[in-house]
C-alpha cells in the first residue's frame, strides 16, 4: 500500500505526509517532489470532487444562487426550449408549464423569466438539473456562475457519455485541468478558434474568416484588450497609421432601436424580430453605446422619437463619438411602416433628420425592412419556409419638406439596408432575420480589428454563403451606402480616460 496520498502545509517551513492509515510523517525533499507530482497528476486526471458527489445544497443555498444570478440567467440564457426539454425529461417542469411558456412568451427574456420564476418554487430539486440543462444547451457561462466546479467534475463526463454530447455548442472541447484553464478556454472560445474565425497573422486577410455558426443569446463581444494591443500594436486607436474617426468616448455614443413587431392592423406579425432586437441591444451595449429601445410605434410616435433622438445626440455631440439608428419593421419602396400602417419616407423622415446633427462624426443607419415585393427565389418550396417584411400596396406616404443644411446631405453617414431596392427582406420566425443575425455575428467576433467596410464585406459574403447552401432558400443581397470620410473602427473595450 502506498504511503504517499495527500500533502498538507501546517506552517510555512513544516511539511507533513499522511499515509493511507492516517499516520503523519515528516517529509524529505524527495517526498516533496513526489507529492508535487501526485498533485499535478491529480489535477490532470480531474480528481476534483463535484458538489453533486458530496452534499446537495439546501433550499436556501439554491435559492440564493438563483437570486444572485437572476439578471444574467434572464438576459443571457440561450436555447431556452432545450433547457426546458431537459427539465421536462427529468420531471422538474411539467409539459403543460413548458407549453404555456413557449406559447405565451415570444420575447426570449420573458421566457427565461417565466421559467426561472417556476424553478424558484422547486429550488433544491431543480438546481442540479438546471445546471445540467444549461451545460447541454451551451450556456457554460451560466454553469460557471451557479457551480464553478461542474465543468471539472466526473458528473459532466457522465452527462457527455449518456447524451453523447462531445461539444459545448458545436465546438471541440478539451478537458480542463484547472479552474484557471477553464477560464482561459472560455476566453479562447469567446474569440473563437483561430482557424475558423480570423487570421491573427494577417489582419487584412478577409477571405479566411468564416461565420457559419451564429452567435447565440448571451454572446460576448471580443474586446480590444491590452493583451491584444501588446500583440498587435497597429490596432492601437491612438497609433493607427491612417486617419480614422475618433471612437474612444465613454459612452461611445447613442443607439436608437425601433422594433415594430405585432401591433399592425392587417400586416403579418414579424415573428423573430424580438430575437433580432434582443441581440442588437446586447451587441451595441457591449460596443459601449447607450441603447434606447422602442417597440410597436405608430406613425406619430416614430416621427417624434426619431426627431427627439436627433436632438439628443446633438446635445451630446461634445461627449459622444457616434450615433446608430436601427429600425426593424415592414417596409416598401423607399418607406418604412409604423404599426398603424402609415408609412415614413426613409430619406426625408428618417435619414435627412440627421443631416445637420453630430457634424463630423459617424452616423450609422441599419434598416431591416423590405424595399419592394420582388422575390429572388430558386424553387417554389422556398416560399413555405420564410417570412418577409414586405407589404403589397403602398399607402399613405407622408413626405417631408425640403431643408437647407450646413453641410452636404448624407455627410458622415453609412446607410445599411437589409436588401436591394424593390426586393423583399427575409426572416426566419424562430431565429430572426438572416441579415441582422449575420451582422451581429460578424461585429461580435471582428469589431476589435476590422473597420466597418471590412465587416460589411464579411456580412455580404456570409449571407451569400448561407443562401447558397440549400436549394430551398431564396437569395437576399444587402445594400450599403457609404458616405463616411474616414475608416470607422468601433474599438470595443477601448476608452479615452480623459
Automatic annotation (TrEMBL):
<feature type="coiled-coil region">
    <location>
        <begin position="177"/>
        <end position="204"/>
    </location>
</feature>
<keyword id="KW-0865">Zymogen</keyword>
<keyword id="KW-0645">Protease</keyword>
<dbReference type="InterPro" id="IPR011600">
    <property type="entry name" value="Pept_C14_caspase"/>
</dbReference>
<comment type="similarity">
    <text>Belongs to the peptidase C14A family.</text>
</comment>
<dbReference type="GO" id="GO:0042981">
    <property type="term" value="P:regulation of apoptotic process"/>
</dbReference>
<dbReference type="GO" id="GO:0006508">
    <property type="term" value="P:proteolysis"/>
</dbReference>
<dbReference type="InterPro" id="IPR001309">
    <property type="entry name" value="Pept_C14_p20"/>
</dbReference>
<dbReference type="Pfam" id="PF00619">
    <property type="entry name" value="CARD"/>
</dbReference>
<dbReference type="InterPro" id="IPR001315">
    <property type="entry name" value="CARD"/>
</dbReference>
<feature type="domain" description="Caspase family p20">
    <location>
        <begin position="251"/>
        <end position="374"/>
    </location>
</feature>
<dbReference type="InterPro" id="IPR002398">
    <property type="entry name" value="Pept_C14"/>
</dbReference>
<feature type="active site">
    <location>
        <position position="330"/>
    </location>
</feature>
<dbReference type="InterPro" id="IPR029030">
    <property type="entry name" value="Caspase-like_dom_sf"/>
</dbReference>
<feature type="domain" description="Caspase family p10">
    <location>
        <begin position="403"/>
        <end position="492"/>
    </location>
</feature>
<dbReference type="GO" id="GO:0004197">
    <property type="term" value="F:cysteine-type endopeptidase activity"/>
</dbReference>
<keyword id="KW-0053">Apoptosis</keyword>
<keyword id="KW-0175">Coiled coil</keyword>
<dbReference type="InterPro" id="IPR011029">
    <property type="entry name" value="DEATH-like_dom_sf"/>
</dbReference>
<dbReference type="GO" id="GO:0006915">
    <property type="term" value="P:apoptotic process"/>
</dbReference>
<dbReference type="InterPro" id="IPR002138">
    <property type="entry name" value="Pept_C14_p10"/>
</dbReference>
<feature type="domain" description="CARD">
    <location>
        <begin position="58"/>
        <end position="149"/>
    </location>
</feature>
<dbReference type="InterPro" id="IPR015917">
    <property type="entry name" value="Pept_C14A"/>
</dbReference>
<protein>
    <recommendedName>
        <fullName>Caspase-8</fullName>
    </recommendedName>
</protein>
<keyword id="KW-0788">Thiol protease</keyword>
<dbReference type="Pfam" id="PF00656">
    <property type="entry name" value="Peptidase_C14"/>
</dbReference>
<keyword id="KW-0378">Hydrolase</keyword>
<dbReference type="InterPro" id="IPR033139">
    <property type="entry name" value="Caspase_cys_AS"/>
</dbReference>
<feature type="active site">
    <location>
        <position position="370"/>
    </location>
</feature>
